[in-house]
Amino acid sequence: MMKGLIAIFLASILTENFILNKFLGICPFLGVSKKLDTATGMSIAVTVVMVISTAVTWPIYNYILKPWNLEYLQTIVFILIIAALVQFIEIVLKKYIPSLYNALGIYLPLITTNCAVLGVAVLVIQKGQADPSFGFLQSVVNAFGSGVGFLVAMVLFAGIRERIEHNDIPKSLQGLPITLVAASLTAVSFLGFQGLVDGLLG
Amino acid sequence: MAKTPWQEFSKGIIKENPVLRLVLGTCATLALSTSANNAIGMGLATTFVLVGSNTVISLLRNVIPDKVRIPCYITLIAGFVTIVQMLISAYSPALKDALGIFLPLIVVNCIILGRAEMFANKNKVLPSILDALGMGAGFTATLLVMGIIRELLGAGSIFGLPITAGFMDPIIIFLLPPGGFFVFGMLIALANKLATDKGAPAAELGCANCPLCGSCSQIAEKEKERAKK
């Protein structure tokens, strides 16, 4: 059990990295990764929302939509839940933990339409359909791991971008294109983790 | 700022190409340009949702209160995505498997919310439909170009027909995620080169193109006002 959870956690960080392997959450990856502290703040906010929204959407799908044969409403229900949750988290943070709100609050409205959050909610449902032993706990661990993977990729990439700033780049490649080429090389390095998790824990 | 219907349609294909010029919808572009078939499937599905949402949002632009417009738009878009999901699973289950998780994720494709926010809620129905068709065509065309490049280099075929068999081995990395980032970077560089030669600014990913920009900056302004009081 524990071993399985660790395998899911590691796989979702390294081999199934949301940004570099699944192309989810590319917008914040390219837009917010210019500075290390904003990259970290954004990723922590994404991780929190991912874990909470998976913990809420999973029971709703399996205990409300599924018994009533309403699976086709999945997309509408999930996006509304996520939008409401983000608002709720924002209000709670503002009221009770103002210091955290000041640090993360500006990223929260952006997260509703972040495909990584809806992505992880839909993905764990699909995994659960393919493999019945992939239950609630596994789903939440997967969401947390994906968030950490998001953080790892963002932080790594912010470091690379701070270096690119000082380099001499051909005019046409300046800005976005060179960032994408750097992302491509980072993705190559993550390909190296393929098979690592099975090798370690299999 | 009256535009002819043709201009309304054609601006989305080259001048304001949603992928290469406005840099919207990058996730779907990178993930589904692994083959020409997937590219067309995703492009058409997105175009359908875009036309539907732009039409309805434009019709309801005087009904939806400004404060809750983003949740309203998202709900409407999610409705259209559900329709597309049902149509595709009924008529083309193979395409459903190929698009996978990115089919429900059309909801959060920034092109759709972006056009709703930037165009459909300010314009009449007909221009909004033309805008949606143009943007959809631009999105599909870009995905198709990327799909053809990646499929040709990575699998040696186009639309599944073998092309380079016999004289060139496929370079598999073009089908993997790094190849997607690389080809996309090169296409943006090319588009930037062509645009800057004509005096237009280079494509930039930032707050300006983000559909939520409006709501974000409103929040910031409101907080400033509150701080003054």
Give a structural overview.
The complex is a heterodimer of chains A (202) and B (229). Chain A has 202 residues and is an all-alpha fold. Chain A has ten helices and no strands. The radius of gyration of chain A is 18 Å and the shape is globular. With 229 residues, chain B is mainly alpha-helical. Chain B has one domain. Chain B has nine helices and two strands; from the N terminus they run H-H-H-H-H-H-H-E-E-H-H. Chain B has helices spanning 5-10, 26-32, 36-59, 69-91, 93-99, 110-120, 125-155, 177-197, 213-228, and strands at residues 157-158, 161-162. Chain B has a two-stranded antiparallel sheet with strand order 1-2. The longest helix of chain B is centred in the middle third of the chain and has 31 residues, at 125-155. Chains A and B meet through helix 2, helix 4, helix 7 and helix 9 of A and helix 2, helix 4, helix 8 and helix 9 of B.
Brief summary:
The complex is a heterodimer of chains A (202) and B (229). Chain A has 202 residues and is mainly α.
Secondary structure topology:
The complex is a heterodimer of chains A (202) and B (229).
Chain A: H1 2-13, H2 26-31, H3 36-65, H4 74-96, H5 98-104, H6 108-111, H7 115-130, H8 136-164, H9 176-191, H10 196-201
Helix pairs in contact in A: 1-8, 3-4, 3-7, 3-8, 4-5, 4-7, 7-8, 8-9
Chain B: H1 5-10, H2 26-32, H3 36-59, H4 69-91, H5 93-99, H6 110-120, H7 125-155, E1 157-158, E2 161-162, H8 177-197, H9 213-228
Antiparallel strand pairs in B: 1-2
Helix pairs in contact in B: 3-4, 3-6, 3-7, 4-5, 4-6, 6-7
